[in-house]
Design brief:
The chain has 180 residues and is mostly helical. Helix content is 77%, strand content 0%.
């Protein structure tokens, strides 16, 4: 059974901040962007789920508000595929914030999804591609192909071999959900 440990979480956040400081001093922009992204995920992932967003839990709102600046800075510093990954997460976080606040997220969500879609390498990150396609289809920006094989940029077998069965199953489930 998973139980939150506030002291452990606080220590992890402190270590992440120390790492950010060290990488800033070293001047490695790509590493700083990756560290900021990871720190944003550290703050975001433990608190955000469909249930906590639906319930509009204050703890979830605070976690997302804390994560967004890390994602924003990571996006500003990154380029190419990594920028697309970070932008996809920022878009997701901003959409979650809007849902938690009871606000619409249309134009900002669509703009972020468009840019991230153009940057994501679909073979390296087909799950992000499917996530972004879901948004673009919702806004009528793209049409889906009739066949699932045409939708996926890489075979499920290749994903399974490269990333494991869990990732392949997640991709298959997300792709099926998208096509329905």
């Amino acid at each position: 059974i998973y139980r939150r440990d506030p002291e452990l979480f606080a220590r992890a956040c402190g270590i992440a901040e120390e790492q950010i400081g060290a990488v800033r001093q070293a001047g490695d922009t790509a590493e700083l962007a990756a560290t900021l992204f990871a720190t944003g995920l550290l703050r975001y992932n433990p608190f955000v789920s469909e249930e906590t967003v639906r319930a509009k839990e204050p703890e979830t709102l605070a976690a997302v508000e804390q994560a967004v600046p890390y994602f924003e800075e990571a996006v500003r510093l990154a380029a190419g595929h990594e920028r697309g990954r970070y932008l996809k997460q920022l878009t997701e976080a901003r959409n979650t914030l809007a849902a938690l606040r009871g606000e619409p997220s249309g134009p900002e969500l669509l703009a972020g999804a468009r840019e991230a879609f153009d940057l994501i390498d679909p073979v390296r990150d087909p799950l992000s591609l499917i996530f972004l396609l879901r948004i673009l289809v919702r806004f009528g920006e793209v049409m889906l192909p009739d066949d699932l094989d045409e939708l996926l940029p890489v075979s499920l077998a290749a994903v399974r071999d490269r990333d494991g069965l869990r990732q392949a199953a997640a991709l298959f489930g997300d792709a099926l959900t998208l096509t329905q």
